[in-house]
Amino acid sequence: MAIQLLRDFAMTSVSGRIAPLPVVDPLGPLADLPGTWVGTGFNQIWRPFHGSQDRFLELNETMETFQVDEIPGDIPNRGLLQGDINVHGVRYLQQIQDVHVLGPNGKPAGIHIEPGIWLSIPLTANPQDAPTVARMAGIPHGTTLVAQGSALPVINAAPPIAPASITPFTIAPPHTPVPFPETNLGIATTFRTPSADIPRVTQAMVNNPNIVLTDGLAGKNVIATTTLKVSTAPLNPPSTGGGTSNIAFLQGAAGGPNAQSVQVDATFWIETIKEATGATKLQLQYTQTVLLNFNGLSWPHVSVATLIKQ
Q1: Mean pLDDT of 46-65
Q2: What's the confidence (pLDDT) of residue 4?
Q3: Degrees (nearest 5) of the Cα angle 303, 69, 95?
Q4: How much is the CA Rg of the chain, to the nearest whole Å?
Q5: Structural domain of 152
Q6: Phi, psi of 201 (to 5 degrees)
Q7: How far apart are CA 182 and CA 80, in angstroms?
Q8: Residue 40, domain CATH
Q9: C-beta pairs of 241-245 under 8 Å, 24+ apart in sequence
């Protein structure tokens, strides 16, 4: 099942008979997350550059381990404007490395490490929110985030995956797109990752990083998909929470910021795949866009991955 809603059974009497009574898993749409997920992905980030121009386009073919553990028991939140609620959650550690580039220790270079928590939050009266999910994360560059959103209804098919873009745009409205030549792999430049470090990266991947996800679905029989959609911007205004916080260096001073993370939008898909043998396995896919603000523009940092539960 894409969402493991039934973990235990209680017993009750029905017309003099004993019948099983399903017990809802308190993790709700997060119930399939605990475990170890391993796979590969693609990372694109515009880095600020202190030199002859303001930007460098880093591209990485990635490998990833996503370790998730359930937080046992209720997590009570005390209410003033309404009664107390119990939330439930998982803690995780995400580790991403470059497939081709080695670090100083001779091992695959580390790109990203992220400890965090996912929460399943029940319906609330104040604020008037339907059940939500939230992701809390800490990034070693000096950013923390809370991204809240919802789990969409389960579909019995592969997810629809919209395109993603890394084209920068003006911070001020109307957010006019500002393309740069570094995104064209046919144009030689010293301000993009060397081609030897990204042998399998294509122009189609740079144009739309989410094509890596659709390729990860090719030939697979997806029979159920749970979708978790979260953002640091309100998805359910005005009540849904979220936001980012950055260290002083990222915020900068006069003429800043150096590179301030101002918004995170992410969609995670937990997919149940039926194999030819009739057995099933779980696949986790995600696409995430982080907006980095510097030098008058918002620069999309897009990362995607396809992981299999071990």
Answers
A1: 96
A2: 37
A3: 30
A4: 21
A5: 26-309
A6: -80, 130
A7: 53
A8: 2.40.128.20
A9: 241/134, 241/146, 241/148, 242/134, 242/145, 242/146, 242/147, 242/148, 243/145, 243/146, 244/143, 244/144, 244/145, 245/143, 245/144, 245/145
Classify residue 1: in a domain, yes or no: no
Label residue 235 by pLDDT band (50, 70, 90): confident
pLDDT of residue 156: 98
Q: How far does CA 241 lie from the centroid of its chain?
A: 17
Contact by Cβ (8 Å): 21, 12: yes
101 domain residue, yes or no: yes
Q: What percent of the chain has pLDDT over 90?
A: 86
Those residues with Cβ within 8 angstroms of residue 188's Cβ, 6 or more apart along the chain or in another chain: none
Residue with the two structure tokens 């992220």: 114
Query: Closest Cα to residue 148, out of 159, 139, 136, 138?
Result: 136
How far apart are the C-alpha atoms of 91 and 75, rounded to whole Å?
A: 13
- Whether residue 170 has pLDDT greater than 50: yes
Q: Is the pTM of this model over 0.85?
A: yes
